[in-house]
Amino acid sequence: MDQLVLYLGFFIAAYAVIANDVIQTLGTFMASNSGVKWWLLWAFAASILAVTLVFGWYAYGGDVSYGRLSAIPLPNPMPWWYLLAPISLLVITRFGIPASTTFMILSVFSSSQLIEKMILKSVLGYSLAFVLAFALYLFITKKFESPASIRLMDKKKQRPFWLVAQWFSTGFLWSQWLIQDFANIFVFLPRHLTWVELLTSLGIILLIMAYIFNVKGGRIQNIVNQKSNTQHIRSATIIDACYGLLLFFFTSLNTIPMSTTWAFIGILAGREIAISYKLKKDKLNKTYRIIVKDFAKVNIGLFVSILIAYLIQFLKA
Description:
Strand content: under 5%
Radius of gyration: 19 Å
Structural class: mainly alpha
Helix content: over 70%
Number of strands: 0
Distance between the termini: 20 Å
């Protein structure tokens, strides 16, 4: 029974985490490359994932989480109720809600002290992302995000340069996100994988990714699609570069897991307010409503994860 829970938990968590969080790193990439065949985009992302996973496994002695699960031991035994977390995340994902997978998955395995540290780091991530994105876009909006600047870029045929820049920035961002979120995907598996377990889990994840790319991200992709200019290569490149650098900072800071979803929503919120303030002040109220709605959605994951964590603690007793 324990083995069944382990394998089923990994599969559900892998699908739910990737399906829910793919908009953070690959959402703008897919939106701005909608004309490219899905399998080419998948092959690019899959190759980076494989390299990042295998490198982490080799460098950390079989620990693909890059040390982020070192303070979260694998429960023994593993009762069925641990599946409540990934199943809840799966349901939320199907409704298109960008929940925090870190809180949804890891909180039920973690101590109260670690959960507090995760929340503090995630709040810091949202705040820092919001402030930096807002400040940056106050300066660059008119040059890079105005309709006239976008038309001028197309006329000057700068698209090839930005296309290459976007693929590089997306690759960097994707690798940094994976380092943060492998812990959410592999929390149901042993902390040190054999090479057979490594290759099997890699194959499963790549198949899940192929499906998600084939359906173009699913409902959660709308979070990205409704933001200003995300379908343009240049705009997507700047977003990805900012987000990648932010995750690199938090990856270097410590190994405490954090909600990358909160950081991503913070970047979009700061960016959207700055763009509205500089280019369309008459739509500021609408922008505020969208941002509040997005923030409320990500907090659903926190609320549900806390409920599940308390429920599991009750079932343990």
